[in-house]
Protein 1
Amino acid sequence: DTAVSQTPKYLVTQMGNDKSIKCEQNLGHDTMYWYKQDSKKFLKIMFSYNNKELIINETVPNRFSPKSPDKAHLNLHINSLELGDSAVYFCASSPGTPNSPLHFGNGTRLTVT
Amino acid sequence: AQSVTQPDIHITVSEGASLELRCNYSYGATPYLFWYVQSPGQGLQLLLKYFSGDTLVQGIKGFEAEFKRSQSSFNLRKPSVHWSDAAEYFCAVGAITSGTYKYIFGTGTRLKVLA
């Protein structure tokens, strides 16, 4: 009964490959997010969807493409992976109201060699 | 621009000692404030939140935080630290920027607990 689950937990791949990370939430939340955490633990928002509609798109390379087939799922596809893409990617969800906290998945550690 | 500052990158305390982790924010309106904890290999877990009312809020695991508007601070405290509290702690503010609600995180404070 995991609230926010993302797969895979670890992803090791070579430069130039294309990979996807999947995220699902069973909390009934309207809003989902992708965050990137770098090696210094800094958390940076990448994307946010509300009811399948993109509402936040930070300055992320267009090699990153989120897709939300329904409000319980938000996947992240990355084309032509680069060394600098190595990081931990967190999916999160919230009801979308200002006083509501984020609920995080356990992260996907992406290593690009 | 909205921002969150956690001045201490690392803090080391002995088990049983008291703890205070600092957080300062920059936001023009009344902020929504959160503290999260991240254990190794895990996602972030909410410790507590503040959005109105009593400025001293209680959270899980014996943590509390005090909102001080005059100092733009939301410091996290615990009277007696346990070895299991060793983790990374993040302060965050919920703010409206460019018409969109966002969560802005500080850079984190890594807590080490000595036995």
Protein 2
Amino acid sequence: EDKVVQSPLSLVVHEGDTVTLNCSYEVTNFRSLLWYKQEKKAPTFLFMLTSSGIEKKSGRLSSILDKKELFSILNITATQTGDSAVYLCAYILTGANNLFFGTGTRLTVIP
Amino acid sequence: AAGVIQSPRHLIKEKRETATLKCYPIPRHDTVYWYQQGPGQDPQFLISFYEKMQSDKGSIPDRFSAQQFSDYHSELNMSSLELGDSALYFCASSNGGVTEAFFGQGTRLTVV
């Protein structure tokens, strides 16, 4: 059975800290992994990762996929209170067109 | 820029009642996806439509039905509501596959 597991479930850090969020997956017919940020409302897209070992970067956020060890990490450097959110990873299967989400990591950044 | 519009934003229904949630996709988007997110849970895929035809089906209960209309808006109909149906219902739309989908703000349904 396909599954995706995120860790930690919850994380509290101080502003300025660097955090690493993990997403492990066991998926048959894996195509891509996506990261989303969910504040109070709709998930907003962060990254899509299809190839192994290629880092994607957007400002203080970066992410990479390891298709051999079946995981992805999302790094946030110099965290700010505005980074407080639930971070969801999701996978998409080859030939499919819907997302399967993990349970998310709740990040709280305190001043 | 126009986003995905969902209505209503909040809805409170009693058990065994019926609810209809609406989703208006971004203009020129031809695909709509519905997700259900229970309290503290990850979003679960329910159903999707492409060009007004059902394209994929997930964990949608038989009590639920959905369709996409000629103007591409979609409605999720939920009957015989149960307490466990209380959740945030997201709609997303895209014009190039789910990896390019934009999510609406969601409808929070509370069944009492």
